[in-house]
Structure formats: structure tokens, C-alpha cells
Amino acid sequence: MLTNKLLLALFIIATIAVGMVGYVVATQTVSIRLATYTSENDRALRDQANRLTALSLIMARGGADNVVEALIADCPLTERERFDDLLGRLDSGLANNQLRELSRLFDRCAKYFAQQKAVMAARFAREVEWYEHLVKQAQVLEPQRDPAVYAVGTWQAMADIEADQAEHMKTLVQLQESIINALITGKSIESSEIDNLLAQVRVVQDNQSYLMIKINDMRAGLPTTP
User: In sequence order, which residues have a C-beta less than 8 Å from that of residue 108 and are 6 or more positions away?
Assistant: First the structure.
């Protein structure tokens, strides 16, 4: 017959054994969940990096994706063609009635690409912020990871450049409008006022070219999606 002391010892041993089994099961469950979450976060990181690359290439071509195209509508095709034609002949001289027609079309057509660029730049910045969040999650899950492979700083710098390019496009539209208005009031294409405006246009265009080269170099230097 088992003594009380022996029964107590057996109970303690059984309790410890059950506790150890429970600890092992709990540890395995946590490890499985952690591995699953890490895998899901890594997949989201790859998808987001691919999304950033796609958006960056679209903007490099001066375009927009389907989401932004649905939000920002261009003027009718016939007006766009007429506007582009008159704007292209502005340097060679337009009659006053043509200048006034250009001014009317300007209000409908001129801001389209600048607005499109602004929305794309803002969207790109938000996507970069989400990418940064996913990278931080990855580092929490696996602190030994090298953050350099994600090139967060490069993506942030590219987002800043796209925002600057959007501002440059907005400035060019404003300068174009000032030139058209000056010509309508009778200023000569060779007047000092027009010369000053054209000088500002060249400065903005030079800045655009510099930033375009810079962001292309950044894009080429991005690491392969981890």
C-alpha cells in the first residue's frame, strides 16, 4: 500500500511532468505562430517592394497608374490636341485671338499632368511609409536582420524627389500662365518681362533634369527585393 509520502512525491512528479509538457507545447505554439507571422510579413515586404518599383517606373515615364487616372481626368481629346498645338507654337508668335483661345484651354487642360504628378507623388510617399513600417516589423521579429538590404533611406529620398518634381511641374504651369497673360496684354515675346519668365522656366527645367538623373541613379542602385 502506498504511503502518504510516496503519494505526495508521485503527485509532485506528475504535476512537474504535466507542467513541462504544457511549457513545451506552449513554446512550440508560440514558435509556430512567430514563424507564420514572419513569413507573412516577409511576403508583404516583397509585395510592397515590387509595388514601389512599379510606381517608380510609371512616374519615371511621366505616367500614372489606373487608380490615379480614374481620379484625375484630362480635358477632352480635341481640346488637348488644340491646346498642345497652340502651346507648341507660342514661341513663334500667336495672334491675339489664338492667345485668348489658348488661355481658355489653359484653364481646362494645363494643370492635368501637374495634378496627376502631385497625386502620384503623394501616393508614392504613403506606400514608402507602409514599406518602412513592414521593415520595422521584420526587425522586431528578427533583430539580427541587416536593415540595409531594404534600402528604406533610398526609397524615402526617392519619395522626396518625386514631391519636388511635382512642385516643379506646378511651378512650370504657373509660369506658362504668366507668359500667356503677358502676351495677351501686348507684351512682346522679346520683352524683358517674358525674358525673365523664360529664364525662370529654364531654371526649373534644369532642376527637373538634375533630379531625374539623380532618381534614376538611385533606382538603379536599389538592391534586389529581399
Answer: 75, 79, 83
